[in-house]
Amino acid sequence: MDMATKAKSKTLKKKKSDGKPKCGLCGKTKKLTKTECCGQWICDDEDKYVLFSYAMNSCYRNHRRYTLCGYHHTEEHPGEWKDCPKCRDSFETEMYVFYGTNEFNFEKLENPPAYLPTKCARCGAVISLGYDGYSSKGDKYLCEECTHKEMESIYRRAKR
Ligand SMILES: [Zn+2]
Ligand SMILES: [Zn+2]
Ligand SMILES: [Zn+2]
Ligand SMILES: [Zn+2]
To answer: For labeling, which of 77, 102, 128, 129 is most exposed (least CB within 10 Å)?
Structure first.
């Protein structure tokens, strides 16, 4: 590649990236709004959410509900969410890291604290509290599979 073409491809690339505003989470360019918490472009899609559906398809809702940034804003904490002691105290470490580093964040926690993996009290499988299904009782956690097994045995015992 000679110098001239190299320069040309560089400018072309630049033109493509700074165009219309797009959702910082999924990249869509239609029907955007800005987040209240951090002023980033995001899909104005909260109306798509069906109550009690537990659907995770709304960028706006996901950012507000499942990130420290959204939580910090909703709870009206002072300062930055990244070094907010109130946010840190509100969640167990694993969830704090999940809320601070999941894909619903525009900016992720730079130095997330270390935590011991949560393990199923019955089979010992590692449970990811942010991503996996589980149930908890006190400080004991059961993975999704063991939760089902446990429910079945309770049901069987009750029937007897
Ligand atoms: Zn989006
Ligand atoms: Zn935000
Ligand atoms: Zn906070
Ligand atoms: Zn288990």
So the answer is: 128
Domain hosting 97: range is 22-101
Q: By C-alpha distance, which of 63, 85, 81, 62 is closest to 72?
A: 81
Q: Measured between alpha carbons, how far is 44 from 149 in angstroms, rounded to an integer?
A: 41
Q: Which backbone phi and psi does 119 adopt, to 5 degrees?
A: -115, 150
Query: What ligand has the least distance to the C-alpha of 105?
Result: 2
Confirm whether 107 is domain-assigned: no
User: Which ligand number lies closest to the CA of residue 80?
Assistant: 3
The answer to whether residue 9 sits within a structural domain is no
CA of 82 to the centre of ligand 2 (A): 11
Distance 58 CA to ligand 3 centre (A): 22
Q: How far is the CA of 73 from the centre of ligand 2 (A)?
A: 8
